[in-house]
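Internal tracking record. Fields below are filled automatically when a chain is submitted to the structure queue. Please do not edit lines marked as system-generated. If the sequence contains nonstandard residues, flag them in the REMARKS field before resubmitting.
Queue: standard
Priority: normal
Entity type: single polypeptide chain
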Amino acid sequence: MKIAFAADHGGFGLKEEVKQYCLTKGYEVEDFGCYSNESVDYPDYAIPAAQAITSGKADVGIFICGTGIGMSIAANKQPGIRAALVHDVFSAKATKEHNDSNVLCMGARVIGSGLALSIVDTWLGAEFSGGRHVRRIEKLEPAKTAGVEAAPNMVDLTRQADDVLMETFEKGYLHEGDLLVIGCSTSEVRGKRIGSDSNAETAAAVFAGLNNAAERLKIHLAFQCCEHLNRAVVVSRSMMEQYRLQQVSVVPAPHAGGAMATHAYRKLPEAVVVSSLEHQARGGLDIGNTLIGMHLKWVAVPLRLTHRYIGSALVQAAYTRPPLIGGKRAVYSVDQEQEANRGV
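SYSTEM-GENERATED OUTPUT FOLLOWS
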């Protein structure tokens, strides 16, 4: 996770302390200033840092001034920013869980460094609850409050999909050459009920991000069709032959297969549709509650991602591991075996 830091002269000292603390915790940081106690104007630092978050160059921000008020006002002027002014641990947890806040603002003249670090720990460790809170956050967007449906930004969808797959690979014990299954509801990505708003442009944007990441990682993707095609899967012919899968005679369409499977069928090299992956997928991404478990190897293990949404769709990721067998004497790693031998 990359954190954008910003402060004015009143928050400079606390910013430096919090920044160093975050570095020791393993976070990546970018400091947008200020860089001394000399008097400055807080918007000059809050706005560039906020724009780094909305552009995807940073994941979240921690902004500090004397009271935190100026920084929070400046940050919240930027579309897509949800800055929360927090001076207690309870609010730090609540604003992430309920408001999906992406900027934490604090006042260096209001709280001390000990409490500030506790707030930072709580806020960075909390996760958005989703559910009913998604609807409420959407109403904060200008197009929503005006009663106009806001179309998702296709560039953002591509970036989000790329980020999700990269994080899944890094956290999911995956390797070059692995096969991942993708289930994606473009309706859910667009903020609608699954199956109600299938969209080709959205599918193309998400596919581009997933495919870009897969090419860099040298992994293979399979795209699940909807239930109207019995959750059959689109793969390349080479993957079908490598995994000895059963081809079926059907061409995915937006309302019988889904927009994502339709797009994948057009884009994958020598694409074919197979009846299933026969439990051979090493991992998977479920984008919008599409149910991909039938294609995964045993045993499937859920992954908790930092990047949890593509558009409005909740992303659920999984990797797989071999089943653990044996009784109380069984060992599951070389280290365990060496420890057991030393104890004999």
